Amino acid sequence: MVARRTYIVEEGPNPSTDYFVLPALKHEVNPVIRCTWADLPSEQDLAYSSVIFVRYVPANWKQRIAQVRSTLARLVYFMDDDLFDYQASTGLPWKYRYKLAVHATRHRAWLQQMKVSLWVSTPWLKAKYASHNPALVEPEPIEAPSPACRVFYHGSASHRDEIEWLKPVIEQCIDANPSISFEIIGDHTVNQLYRSIPRVTVVHPMKWPSYQTFLATPGRDIGLAPMLDHPFNASRSHTKFFDITRAGAVGIYAKPGPWEHLIAHEENGMLCPMEPQSWVDAILKLAEAPAIRQALVQNAKEKITFLSNPRVL
Description:
single chain; alpha/beta; Rossmann fold; 2 domains; 6-stranded parallel beta sheet; 12 helices
C-alpha cells in the first residue's frame, strides 16, 4: 500500500508556514512533512501525496512536480504577499524583488498549467486573484514555546578567539537541548560565523551607556566568561562577574581566570577549565536545573553586596 503524505515545501522555518499553513493542516489525516528546497522526495514517495509550496517554487521541485503531477493527490501554492504581480514590489530592495521574481512571480503560468489550488492569506489577495478561485487561509496564534534557557556571551572585538572557541560548544548545547538559545554580541563576521546555528541571536556592538540598558533587560539565564591563554588576557579584571550577575544570570567562568577569588564553584557560579566538553556539560547541567540557577544567582548577588560594603583594609 502506498503511504500518502503531505509535503510542505519551504525555504526554511518561517512565519508563513507557522501562522497559516500548519493551522490549515491541523486536521490533516496524512503525515505532514516539512521539506526545505534541498529535501526532494523520490517520485515513488510523492505518488498519491499532497505538495504545498509556501511562497516560492524552487527549480528542483518544479522539475520533479512536472514529472509526477498526474499522480499527486493535491498541489497547493500559498502566498501571504502579492507575489504574482512584479509591480506590487516596486520600491522594495532590488535583491528582494529579484528573489520574488525568480522564485515566485515567474512561476504563475506554470502553476496554472499544473492546476494548482491557490491559498491566500487576506481578503485583498482573494479578491485580486478571484480568477484563480483561491481559498482564504486565516492565521492562528502560535503556541507558546516551552520554558526557554537563554545563554549569552557579551565579548568585545578583543575576544575574537573566544567567540570562535565557543562556536562548537554552543552548537553541541543547542543540538542537545531544544530549550536553549544563545545571544552573542558581534559584527558581521560574527553573524556569518554563527548564522548556521539555530536559535542564535547576534546583537550589534553598542556604546557602554546603551549596553547598560541592554544588560538590564530581563530574560537571560546563563552568562559565559571564557578566557583563552593569550598575553592580552593576562591583565583582565573580574568585571564579567558583575555584568553577568547584574543580568540576573548565573555565570560559567574560565579557570584559571581573574574571578577565581570570587567564585566558589557551584555556590555562586561555576568554574570550568577551557576544555569544550567541560563547558558543554556545565551549560547543559544548568539549563536543566532552574532551581539551582536561581540559588547560584542569589548567592552571587549576596557576594556583590558584600563587596560593595565599605571595608577597612
